[in-house]
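Consortium newsletter contribution from the modelling node. Members have asked for a concrete example of what our holo predictions look like. Here is one, prepared for the coenzyme A complex that several groups have been discussing at recent meetings.
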Amino acid sequence: MSDPVIIERSADHPAVQLIRFNRPEKKNAFTRAMYRSMVEALDAANADADIRATVFLGTDGCFSAGNDIGDFLAAAMGGGMGQELIDFLYALVNAEKPLVSGVDGLAIGIGTTLNLHCDLTIASGRSQFRTPFVDLALVPEAASSLIAPRIMGHQRAFAMLAAGEAFSAEDARQAGLIWKVAAPAEVESQALAAAAKLAAKPPEALKIARDLIRGPREEIIARIDEEARHFAARLKSGEARAAFEAFMRR
Ligand code: COA
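And here is the predicted structure:
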């Protein structure tokens, strides 16, 4: 079986690390093992001076359908979520080098919210961003309840995070969730080129600039923790369990 997350260096730009979601048969839904691999890659980037930027990529027509709902159901049945998702969110916040994403197609749940932690996102025109948290009887995660209203204002953040409305690539660009819209065949090359350009800049100045632009990490971590407390409680609710079972039964 192929690895559900492929971690590699870009052949053309060796200072750029690629994190490719590779579970297309399940629409690149994230499992606990996938979060673990991604945490390792993000930690490795912090520790390795030769890695200057990291790029997230999905597969043809699918970025990610979000957290694996089977894992949500297991947690709802009393198995617990484990620490992997929270570790991944912390690793995103604690990333010391630029994060770039190339989105082509579906970006659901954390497939959308992880882009709030990216510095530059290129998305294809056929992309769709959607966070059906409340429809699954859950609450926003990844500090999206803090970052999204800041970048897109209350109404658009509410439409996305609470009402679960789908945003097209153009909606997402206008909302400031993504940087640019590209043709599907261009997404990967443009994301890599953007990362390679960042990788070529003076790293210390870039790090300071990035930290200033992003603001204090403590505030973001505190919101992740606050959301996670609600999320864990909601996961155990009858309404959430019913929603997960309905999805698994389809
Ligand atoms: N968790 C687990 N499995 C998932 C999944 C998820 N988040 N998203 C998709 N899959 C699986 C499906 O169960 C299906 O598996 P199967 O072939 O073994 O039945 C496979 O991926 C293909 O998905 P399918 O629903 O048949 O494709 P589609 O093109 O009709 O729809 C989606 C794609 C993403 C719109 C739909 O699968 C969906 O709504 N997924 C749930 C998204 C979600 O709510 N994520 C959590 C956000 S917090």
